[in-house]
Every structure is written in structure tokens, then in C-alpha cells.
Amino acid sequence: MKALVFQGPGQIAWQDVPDPVVKGADDVVIRVDVVTICGTDLHVIKGDVPEVTPGRVLGHEAVGTVVEAGAGVRTVRPGDRVLISCISACGRCRFCREGHYGQCRGGGGWVLGHTVDGTQAEYVRVPFADLSVHPLPASVDSHDGVLLADIFPTAYEVGVLNGGVRPGDTVVVVGAGPIGLAAIIGAGLYSPGRIIAVDLAESRLAAARSLGADATAGAAEEPGQLVDDLTEGLGADVVIEAVGVPEAFEMCTRMVRPGGRVANIGVHGRPATLHLEDLWSKDITITTGLVDTYSTPMLLGMLAADRLPSSSLITHRFELGQMEEAYDVFSRAADTGALKVVLGGPQHNEIIAPAQP
Question: So which residues are the signal peptide here (predicted)?
């Protein structure tokens, strides 16, 4: 099969690799029908995630069709159309039993495209299928559904819920890329008093306004001054960091009010300075997190009921074989206006795999 392979920092290639096969009783092999690219993939390619070694197939988000299932799989069967979660969960370790699937110690967590081959391929093996794939309702389009593999649960759990967004709050979202825009949508579910979006790209700020941001600050403006003006100098109740660079995180800590919350979503490849000389007396809560995806069934229900505007985040569509072109467009978002790019692969009728023992 063909797959997008990491070959070292700055190097990827769409190339031939062996077909995946079922290795354990709880595995499934899935034909990838729709896949997308995440900002985390760009961090991987830059070398920010050293656990990803050359030869790894990238990607952790997809919708596909089950073609083979291990003997222990109970919730899906061949022919089912499913959402592949970015997080795999063994279901047995302490963290899984508490719903913290992202911290799984039984062989799961963020493994796809990280420590095992991922979804940016024609086929993918997914471990722990009963907790790691979700049957898709017939009413959910695959291109919309793939956005619930990562960005929506990540923005909702790590941003909105960790940040404790409440009715009437002033919420600032720093970074209006796909995750930040999903955080704006998620925050809007809690009736905040206002949502302020901060980004360098005007196209992304326009998208933020269309999805619920009440005010925006761009490259030519001072976000901190805007927040002060709108809050009479108090600061924001919740600030969500959705960029992953030190300057963005440090900006967030300057804009939060005493007693407020900073929820970091961004993947950081460099150290950020925590200015405790300014923050120690302000009762600030700072949260970090890797998504657990416990909210995915609820979000799927909202999507099926047409309560989640996921399709508005999709700006570019490609065939699966155009993976390298899609990466180029996604990585140059400031020039291309890309938010979320999705790729639909060719349909296959069979996969060669060894018979089950």
C-alpha cells in the first residue's frame, strides 16, 4: 500500500510500505476513506516530537471501513464505517479506568502516527478497537466526521472544559487555526459573555468571527490592550492557548484576570517562561493536557443532530495520493488560507492478510 512516511526532520514521502495486518485479538484493520492533517503532524516533521522515528507512517485522524477484525473485537465488524480516534485506550489500566485515555499505560494513549504506524495511508491497523473506534451514524458525512477524531474533542476537553468556561465569562482564544476555531465553537456552548480571538492571519480571524467570536485582534493590534478595554482592566476569565509557541503562552498569562484560568492546548517544542514573579499572587490556574477523547460519543451525537458546524472548518479537499501537496498547502496556511484539509482515498475491495489462527 501507499503511505506518508516520516524520513527525518523536514522530510516526508508518499511511498510503498507493507500492508498492515491484525496482530492482536483486539486489533482491527481499516481501509482509510477520509484522512486529515493535524498541526501536531507539522510539529513531528519539524522534529519537535523525538519519539517519532524515521520510517514511521504519520497521521492519527481518519474515517474508514473495517476490513478485518481480531477475534476479541466486539463493537465493530468488517464493513462498518468508523471514526478512528486519535487516542487508543486499553481500557484496563488505572488511567483508562478513570477515563484518562490519553495517559493509558497499557499500550495505548497517542500511539497512531507516534509510536505505531498511523492513518495517513491506504490502510491502518488500530489497536484496542472496542474503545478506539466509533461507528459513524449514517447521517454523518465522512468528511465532517473526521474532524471529531482530534480537533473537536481536543478543543472541547483540553480547552473549554479544562478552562472551566462558564456563562458570562470573557474567553480569549489565542490562535485561530482549526483547534482554536473548534475551541470558539465549544466555548459558545456555554454562553460566555464574549469571545475574543487572537491570530496573525486576517483570514483566520474572519473565520473566527463567522463561528462566534465577538471581537478579534490581529497582527497590527495589541491583544492585551483590547482585553483590558473590554473588561475594564480586569482581564479575561479564561484564556485558551492554541498555538504552541512560547510567545503565545506568555501572552495568555498576561491577559488572564486574577483568579482566572489559562488552558494550554498547543504542542510546544521550545521552553516557555513562566513569569511567577508576576503571577504568584494572582490565584491563576494553568492547565495542560493531552486529549482523552471521552467526549467523542457526545460530540458525534451533536454532529448527527446538526448541532456542530464542523464542515465550515474544511477549506481544501484532495485525493489521498495528493498527500505531499496537501501538506504543502496546510503548512503554508498564512498564504493558502487553509484551515482543515481533508483527503479522500481510492476505494479498495480487498486486503491481503494472514488467516486468523
Answer: none
pLDDT digits (tens, 9 = 90+) for 289-343: 999 999 999 999 999 999 998 888 999 999 999 999 999 999 999 899 999 999 9
pLDDT at 357 exceeding the cut of 80:
no
Q: Read off the pTM.
A: 0.93
pLDDT of 352 = 42
Report the distance separating Cα 3 and Cα 12, nearest Å: 10
Residue range 110-135, pLDDT digits in tens: 999 999 999 999 999 999 999 999 99
At 151, which helix (H) or strand (E)? helix 151-154
Strand ranges for 85-145 from DSSP E: 123-126, 133-135
In the chain the beta strands, taken as DSSP E runs, fall at 2-8, 11-16, 28-36, 62-69, 81-84, 123-126, 133-135, 170-174, 194-198, 215-217, 236-241, 256-264, 285-287, 314-319, 340-344
Residue 5 pairs with which residues in a beta bridge? 13, 57
Percent of the chain whose predicted confidence (pLDDT) is above 70: 96
Distances from the Cα of 243 to the Cα of 263, 272, 290, angstroms = 12, 12, 14
SS3 119: coil
Give the Cβ contact number of residue 273 at 10 Å. Answer: 10
3-state secondary structure of 17: coil
The answer to whether 269 touches 103, Cβ cutoff 8 Å, is: no
How far does Cα 349 stand from its chain's mean position? 30
* Phi and psi at residue 134, to the nearest 5°: -130, 125
